[in-house]
Design brief:
Blueprint: H1 2-19, H2 22-29, E1 33-38, E2 41-45, H3 51-64, E3 74-78, H4 109-120, E4 129-132, H5 139-153, E5 159-163, H6 164-176, H7 180-188, E6 192-196, H8 205-220, E7 224-229, H9 241-247, E8 251-254, H10 260-271, H11 275-281, H12 283-290, H13 295-311, H14 318-327, H15 342-352, H16 358-361, H17 367-383, H18 388-393, H19 400-416, H20 418-433
Parallel strand pairs: 2-3, 4-7, 4-8, 5-6, 6-7
Antiparallel strand pairs: 1-2
């Protein structure tokens, strides 16, 4: 490998010698020397006085000249003649985690806006940025979206993403192999540092100290730092106190579980070309209402339903989706339990409008009965976890589209018709107090 390293460097050196002015080459490139290669990276020794400038000014040119060996795709400049790092896990950015692929809703709009601002103006706003929220609702997506945006749109900046667990593993490996200076160089000589799952550092005093020093060094050098955890620093009682204090000094943005509209938008995006059909059949609405946990559970439920339909060679109907969801574990199909029954809602609504409860399930089409039926359907959809078909069946075996139409109509009336608003508000109070 040593001969290959020398050959790769000779090619890079010759390429830059021919493309740069002689005085520029002699001042900045000639002092560089190869140290070794590891994990697709060629490591070059560079003088401490010029290393940062060379990395910023010529980093892209150095990488572009790597055309001899396809296994080597990037160059890193290190201090002294330290060997390359051990084969510790180096986490790469996933290309699918972009801002365009992130579904924006009421519960994540602020976090998305702050992350995009950081990506567009690294180290100029919100530094450090701390994103918190329960697992599976988009923290890693936003962190990696920042990294992907900077890598594609901001030329010449060095981005490093890692989880706190990876940071810990590399730190311990560096201590074991006497490579602490190289470890520090990798994490501190960056322009954008993205560190995920900070809660992993609780009760790890020594690693937390190094983590704090790394953040401070990166910020002092003018780098952008973005961190994430499943809860805010104040809710980590076992976290190293100085590190906790430092994390609380930046902008804290919180992600909360997506609301119904966001869940539905996520499902439509994941469904792709089949989204229109699944929306029309009520399958996506069923999932968006029933799966109220994290985004992973939501996406997993759609994958499971589509796979079941494909493997059993059945059409993906609403009834099939209900069967699959019913067989899922409570954790997968998590949602708030609601004690209200459809019958109770029908009884309260008919009583408020001085009708017999049977009128709502009958075939009668008088204006008063239709109005009461639509209000009751609206309340059933808002206050229970029943699907559209399940609600429709309890109103005389009607079609689920009737419930959907009723819900939308009452929603519009609530905005413009005060008697309807008063009626619904009174019914909500009665049903919640019952």
């Amino acid at each position: 490998m040593e001969d290959q390293v020398e050959e790769i460097w000779r090619h890079v050196d010759d390429t830059l010698r021919g493309s740069l002015p002689p005085d520029v080459y002699r001042a900045w490139i000639e002092p560089l020397a190869p140290v070794g290669a590891q994990g697709g990276v060629l490591y070059l020794r560079a003088p401490a006085s010029t290393r940062e400038w060379v990395r910023r000014r010529f980093g892209a040119l150095l990488d572009a000249a790597l055309t001899v060996n396809p296994a080597i795709s990037r160059i890193e400049l290190i201090a002294g003649d330290a060997p390359p790092p051990p084969a510790a896990a180096r986490m790469s950015l996933k290309p699918g985690y972009t801002f365009e692929a992130f579904v924006i809703g009421a519960t994540n709009r602020f976090a998305h806006a702050a992350s995009l601002a950081v990506a567009e103006l690294p180290a100029q706003v919100y530094n450090p940025l701390f994103i918190c929220g329960q697992p599976g609702i988009g923290k890693t997506h936003l962190l990696q979206a920042i990294g992907n945006y900077v890598s594609l749109c901001v030329s010449g900046l060095n981005v490093r993403y890692a989880t706190a667990e990876t940071f810990t593993s590399e730190f311990l490996a560096a201590l074991q192999h006497n490579q602490a200076p190289l470890f520090k160089q990798r994490y501190r000589s960056v322009d954008v540092l993205l560190l995920d799952d900070v809660q992993f550092l609780e009760s790890k005093e020594r690693t937390s100290e190094e983590f704090l020093y790394t953040i401070e060094a990166a910020l002092t050098a003018g780098a952008q730092v973005v961190l994430s955890a499943d809860r805010p620093p104040a809710a980590m009682p076992l976290l190293h106190a100085p590190l906790k204090g430092r994390l609380e000094g930046g902008l804290l943005v919180e992600l909360t579980p997506p609301d119904y509209a966001t869940r539905l938008a996520i499902l439509r995006r994941q469904a792709g070309d089949a989204g229109s059909d699944l929306t029309a059949s009520g399958v996506l609405d069923l999932l968006a209402r029933r799966i109220q946990g994290n985004v992973r559970s939501l996406e997993s439920a759609l994958v499971r339903i589509r796979a079941f339909a494909s493997l059993t060679q059945q059409p993906l109907t609403l009834e099939l989706a209900e069967q699959v969801i019913a067989a899922m574990s409570p954790e997968d199909a998590a949602g708030p339990s609601r004690s209200l029954s459809i019958e109770r809602i029908q009884a309260r609504t008919s009583n408020a409008l001085q009708l017999d409860p049977e009128a709502l399930t009958s075939a009668r089409r008088s204006r008063q009965v239709v109005y009461a039926r639509q209000v009751a359907m609206y309340l059933c959809r808002e206050l229970t976890d029943h699907s559209l078909p399940a609600i429709a069946r309890r109103f005389g075996g009607r079609d689920h589209t009737t419930v959907l139409h009723a819900h939308r109509k009452v929603q519009r009336q609530l905005l413009v018709d005060q008697p309807t608003k008063d009626l619904v508000d009174n019914l909500l109070r009665e049903l919640n107090d019952a």
